[in-house]
């Protein structure tokens, strides 16, 4: 029996928004309609919090609620650590050390298991989203997390791209430029997308890795702590349990202030307590610098895209923090561009990811000649002429090579692929050897916006042996290719010799480690 004759296993794809504070998972139903999949607690979003309890890992609201009682058993905000090696970040529970991607895999396992229960079928494939400014190590770590959770990861895509897809499959034939403002629990991301004739193109993107709802929460936490200290000369933040308790109260207060003009927080610690009345106005005054930061990022992105507000047709809001009135006011103050209200800010990204899952599978159908998806789904996701919807992303970091500057007598970074280049992209350049009689041409690949090598992130090396007795300045050809899956390949050519290196990312796990880590993770029961 040839491979083509084998009965194909049923496949089911989902879209996963792996958020800093909350996750969401969605699928496309048999009629081609995107739907959020609720978890076993009947919630449409799941807190990205893990509670380790022996060999059990409890994920979601239960874990979050227990955070106060058992803070030492809790892991949260793991998205901020993605892409770090185990030596840079790890957490230890029950004698086992977990990397960021393993912890994220535990969260994904919960989402997958709950989805399977709800749908009544195995979930095999997924598209997972990341902030547009995530670098390659962070993306690869995200891909590994999905694999560790037992999923075939079809693609890792940018959150704003997913949001733009969710914004309107029906509107993709209208020409428009959308501004996606995504302020979540821990990250901030602004992206400008162009939609025309079934093609979504990213024009510019920028963001702040460390700006999100948590910063607003911290303002309230520190405010209450200051009042407590003034009253009782004691710091309620030094005790982990008291901190968690206050943190939860601050979070609730912040959300209340989105719909009310005032609220009250009472916090007790060491037998003493403080009561603080907070008005929305006072809170907004204390958080003004955060709003200003958001505004500056928006302005930078507009400059990078070389656009003014008259060229923007619609603003899309994603991330729970965009429910906050001061955020909306700031956005309205910048321009008179209408804000799209037909997508829920918490769900848009997962829904867009599920849509991308179908688009990826349709692409596979074309290649394999086999039908994976129901006809109704296929029809809904193809253009009127039967063509597929196309998504073009851009690079969000410059990929360069370290060269020698003879006049300045120092090394510098030459940009091979500049930030914001549409992907896939290939660039070629010819360089001269720095000295006579060089035995090897060593290409040092870096990522970053600076021309100073020390200020960029080293990604890898590609070298070739050179023939003997070459004069200084002998030509070496260098090619960088960057594909849709954000994999960089570097090719060095000189004198009939060639070396081709796929730049492996510095994440915690190698391919063989993924296999053993997957088996290891199965020892834990995820609830
Ligand atoms: P996300 O990571 O996109 O789910 O965003 C979650 C963040 O949004 C958290 O910091 C939440 O506290 C915050 N958030 C959710 N709803 C509201 C609301 N109504 N008002 C203010 N912040 C909110």
Short précis:
The chain has 527 residues and is an alpha+beta fold.
List the helices and strands and how they pair.
Elements lengths: L12 E6 L3 E7 L5 E3 L9 E2 L2 E4 L2 E4 L1 H6 L7 E2 L15 E3 L2 E3 L1 H20 L5 E6 L5 H13 L3 E7 H9 L8 E8 L4 E9 L2 E10 L4 H20 L7 H20 L2 E8 L2 E8 H7 L1 H18 L8 E5 L6 H10 L4 E2 L7 H21 L6 H6 L9 E3 L6 E7 L4 E8 L7 E8 L7 E8 L9 E9 L9 E8 L5 E7 L2 E6 L8 H11 L3 E2 L1
Parallel strand pairs: 1-10, 6-28, 10-11, 12-17, 14-19, 17-18
Antiparallel strand pairs: 1-2, 2-3, 2-4, 5-6, 5-7, 8-9, 12-13, 13-14, 15-16, 20-21, 20-23, 22-25, 23-24, 25-26, 26-27
Helix pairs in contact: 2-3, 4-10, 5-6
This protein binds adenosine monophosphate.
Adenosine monophosphate (AMP) binds next to α6.
Alpha carbon gap, first and last residue: 41 Å
**Classification by helices and strands:** alpha+beta
CATH second-level architecture of the largest domain: 2-Layer Sandwich
Could you tell me the number of beta strands?
28
Mean pLDDT comes to 88
Describe the biggest sheet?
6 strands, mixed
Instruction: Name the hetero compounds present.
Output: adenosine monophosphate
Q: What is the number of helical segments per DSSP (H or I, 4+ residues)?
A: 12
Whole-number radius of gyration? 25 Å
Oligomer: single chain
Unreliably modeled segments: 1-5
Could you state the CATH homologous superfamily of the largest domain? ATPase, nucleotide binding domain
Q: How much of the sequence is in beta strands?
A: 25-35%
């Amino acid at each position: 029996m040839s491979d083509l004759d084998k009965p194909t296993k049923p496949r089911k794809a989902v879209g996963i928004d792996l958020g800093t504070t909350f996750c969401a998972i969605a699928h496309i139903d048999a009629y081609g309609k995107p739907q959020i999949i609720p978890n076993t607690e009947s919630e449409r979003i799941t807190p990205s919090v893990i509670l380790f309890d022996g060999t059990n890992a409890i994920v979601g609201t239960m874990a979050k609620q227990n955070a106060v009682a058992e803070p030492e058993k809790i892991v949260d905000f793991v998205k901020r650590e993605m892409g770090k090696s185990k030596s840079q970040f790890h957490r230890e529970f029950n004698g086992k050390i977990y990397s960021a991607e393993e912890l994220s895999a535990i969260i994904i396992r919960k989402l997958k298991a709950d989805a399977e229960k709800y749908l009544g079928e195995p979930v095999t494939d997924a598209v997972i989203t990341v902030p547009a400014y995530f670098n390659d190590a962070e993306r690869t770590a995200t891909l590994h997390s999905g694999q560790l959770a037992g999923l075939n990861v079809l693609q890792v895509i940018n959150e704003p791209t997913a949001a733009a897809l969710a914004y309107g499959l029906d509107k993709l034939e209208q020409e428009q430029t959308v501004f996606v403002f995504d302020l979540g629990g821990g990250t901030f991301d602004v992206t400008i997308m162009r939609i025309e004739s079934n093609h979504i193109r990213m024009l510019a993107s920028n963001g702040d890795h460390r700006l999100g709802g948590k910063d607003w929460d911290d303002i309230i936490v520190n405010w209450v702590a200051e009042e407590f200290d003034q009253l009782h000369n004691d710091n309620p933040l030094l005790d982990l349990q008291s901190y968690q308790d206050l943190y939860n109260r601050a979070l609730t207060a912040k959300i209340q202030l989105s719909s009310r003009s005032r609220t009250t927080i009472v916090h007790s610690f060491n037998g003493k307590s403080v009561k603080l009345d907070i008005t929305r106005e006072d809170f907004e005054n204390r958080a003004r610098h955060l709003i200003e930061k958001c505004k500056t990022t928006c302005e930078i992105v507009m400059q990078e895209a070389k656009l003014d507000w008259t060229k923007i047709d619609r603003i899309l809001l994603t991330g729970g923090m965009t429910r906050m009135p001061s955020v909306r006011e700031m956005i309205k103050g910048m321009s008179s561009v209408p804000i799209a209200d037909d997508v829920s800010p918490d769900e848009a990204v997962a829904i867009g990811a599920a849509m991308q899952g179908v688009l990826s599978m349709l692409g596979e159908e074309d290649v394999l000649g086999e039908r994976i998806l129901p006809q109704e789904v296929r029809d809904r996701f193809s253009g009127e002429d039967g063509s597929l919807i196309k998504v073009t992303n851009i690079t969000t970091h410059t990929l360069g090579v370290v060269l020698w500057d003879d006049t300045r007598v120092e090394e510098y970074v030459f940009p091979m692929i500049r930030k914001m280049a549409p992907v896939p992209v290939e660039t070629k350049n010819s360089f001269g050897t720095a000295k006579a009689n060089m035995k090897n041409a060593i290409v040092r690949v870096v990522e970053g916006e600076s021309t100073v090598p020390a200020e960029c992130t080293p990604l890898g090396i590609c070298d070739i042996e050179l023939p003997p007795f070459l004069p200084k300045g002998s030509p070496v050809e260098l090619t960088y290719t960057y594909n849709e899956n954000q994999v960089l390949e570097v090719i060095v050519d000189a004198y009939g010799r060639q070396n081709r290196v796929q730049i492996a990312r510095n994440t915690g796990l190698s391919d063989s480690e993924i296999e053993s880590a997957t088996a290891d993770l199965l020892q834990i029961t995820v609830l």
